[in-house]
Amino acid sequence: MKAVFSEKHCSHDPQFFLVRGQVKRTTEQPERADRLLKGLKDGHHTLIKPTEFGQGPRARVHSPEYLRFLEDAWSEWTKLPDYGPEMIANIHPVRNAATYPTHITGKLGWHTVDTAAPIGPGTWEGACAATDTATTAAQMVLDGEDAVYALCRPPGHHAYRDMASGFCFMNNSAIAAAHLRQKHQRVAILDVDVHHGNGTQGIFYARGDVLTVSIHADPTAYYPFFWGFAHERGEGDGLGANLNIPLALGTGDDGFIDAIKVAAKTIQSFAPTALVVALGLDASEHDPLAALKVTTAGFERIGAALAQLGLPTVIVQEGGYLSDILGANLTATLKGFEAAR
Ligand code: ZN
Fold first, then answer.
1. CB 3.0 to 4.6 Å from 236: which of 74, 141, 206, 300, for a disulfide?
2. What domains lie within the chain, and their CATH numbers?
3. pLDDT per residue over 64-78, tens digit each?
């Protein structure tokens, strides 16, 4: 399989992560991409550098003021006296009859959901490389490739139209889906990251042309807590075009595969002509954020189940954190996919 990758991801190197009141180093580290890259090399996949598409594909999904904020954030921040090493908001408006702020501290609060998306000097460059990686993979599928993998870092599925959260700044999977929509009237996104794809759900919640399906750890006891429940089914034109399949903490291979079978029925009845897989590998039994217990053999079965949907597919990397088998889980997923194609 062809795999798109940019070394520019490493310009985004966040440090801050607030966990149960304790500041730790974030798990979303550049080394993740090194391990995933090794997984691609072990699988003998062909590496492609991304094309730079400019703002167009990003602007299909994100608001103009949000893109302007992300691009200018660091230079505005460093004009403040006593600015910190990373941008983390200390106030959020919760949008109740609020006015869009002009001060950078206000904009930071407006455009972030949580403290897990610190912005540093290289965040914009790294996040742009990730959207170009996803868009390049989508363009290759539009040009006739059957399936292409995009090694995106930072991940994207927690990013909303105008808000960053959960390690994510721009929604790579949503951008890939919107790019595919140029040619495909109906596109499905299947998110298999251990966390609910709340940003992706938010972006397409009122749209009937993009089906969003997410399989994830039960949000009653796991991030993102406020979204990802089965009763969230979309609204307006999008009513019925959003499916959440929460799994009990500790679910393993069989339970995950059963969930993909449920997802497959909804995808088939929606009748899309292209698919984006938001591929988190953090459902692994060895992931440091451990909530589910998928084995490496389980990821191979997941890859096969995704391939059996039979659609032109863009596979976008989402989560999956440092463990000794992170790369092997990617190799296994893509191996299962290719074998079942
Ligand atoms: Zn995740």
1. 206
2. 2-340 (3.40.800.20)
3. 999 999 999 999 999
